[in-house]
Amino acid sequence: MHVPNIVSLDNDNLRDYVFIILGMAIYAIGFTVFILPHDIVVGGMAGFSTVVYFATGQTVPVAFTMYAVNILMLVCWRKTLGRRFVLRTVFGATILSLMIGSVESYFTSHPPIVTDMTMSVIMGSVFMGCGVGIYYVHKGSAGGTDIVAAVFEKKSNVSIGRTMMVIDITIVTCSFLLPFDGDMNARIQARVETIVYGWTSIVIYSFLANYIVNADKQTIQFLILSPRWNDIADNITHRSGRGVTMFDGKGFWTGEDRKLLIVWCRQFDAERIYDIVREIDRDAYIIQSEARSVYGNGFDYLGNKRSKLLKNK
């Protein structure tokens, strides 16, 4: 494997890989410190590997199964997934497996740091969600259900999110069949509780990951009505770097001609737009709403969203 093809020397790629490693570390902490010691099965490759770990009497380490299955899937579907996706996934899967493998034996052989299961699952899920969100934002991939979902995305009309959700729920549910000392009633009492915790964990870390991934992509639409529209438009253009579109309008009651300004910006630019309007005309009408999608120059790429998703991974 040619290393320079995996880790580019330019600053943007170097920054991406630093944050990918950081995200992997946060995910590994959440999983090994808070989730695994309580025998909770979560979604993803970590959850599948946990099932294997307990099904084999804790003889096959979670990290080993994660890495072996990831590499096997990448070898089988390398042509479908594309070279860039495969290289990034090999990098991410290697880093994550090494991190989990280096500490899992310690935390599985000692009492949980947080003894309350509910609080431990919540904390672990928060760490995992933040970790996934961080390395996804920087185009990282740890493999697992990402690989399966990406293959389904390319071969069918099933969305990646839906595929991953079905797989995650199925993995957690399968933990009901793990070896258990006791009759069926005892199994139901014990396993249903851990399954509910697993499902809860999926909801928490999926929500956080999606929030982090989409936070910097949230687009805001402003409608601004003011007699000082020219000053407002000029300041927004030159101070925020965002474009302004003008429409001719007329007040129904007064019959006066008005200029309606429309501005689209990212969430982090919204407060700056407010400040500019507030400085120039405190009596201006300003309406803020969330725009579901904005495509074009300065926003999202208008093209095949599926192919772009796989290309960027």
**Count, helices:** 12
Mean pLDDT: 84
Rg, alpha carbons: 25 Å
Distance between the amino and carboxyl termini: 18 Å
Shape assignment: elongated
Proportion of strand residues: 5-15%
Q: Largest sheet, if any?
A: 4 strands, antiparallel
Strand-pairing-aware structural class: alpha+beta
Strand order of the largest sheet: 2-3-1-4
Uncertain stretches = 1-9, 304-313
Helix percentage: 55-70%
Tell me how many strands there are.
4
Task: Chart the SSEs and their pairings.
Blueprint: H1 3-6, H2 11-35, H3 44-55, H4 62-81, H5 83-108, H6 117-137, H7 145-155, H8 160-174, H9 184-215, E1 219-225, H10 229-240, E2 245-250, E3 257-266, H11 270-280, E4 285-291, H12 305-312
Antiparallel strand pairs: 1-3, 1-4, 2-3
Helix pairs in contact: 2-5, 2-6, 3-4, 3-8, 4-5, 4-7, 6-9, 7-8, 8-9, 10-11
Could you please describe the fold and organization of this structure?
The chain is α+β, with helices and mostly antiparallel strands and 313 residues long. Helix content is 63%, strand content 10%. Strands 2-3-1-4 form a four-stranded antiparallel beta sheet, with no helix packed on it. A hairpin with a 6-residue loop joins strand 2 (245-250) and strand 3 (257-266). The longest helix has 32 residues, at 184-215. The protein is elongated. The two termini are 18 Å apart. Residues 1-9 and 304-313 have low confidence and may be disordered.
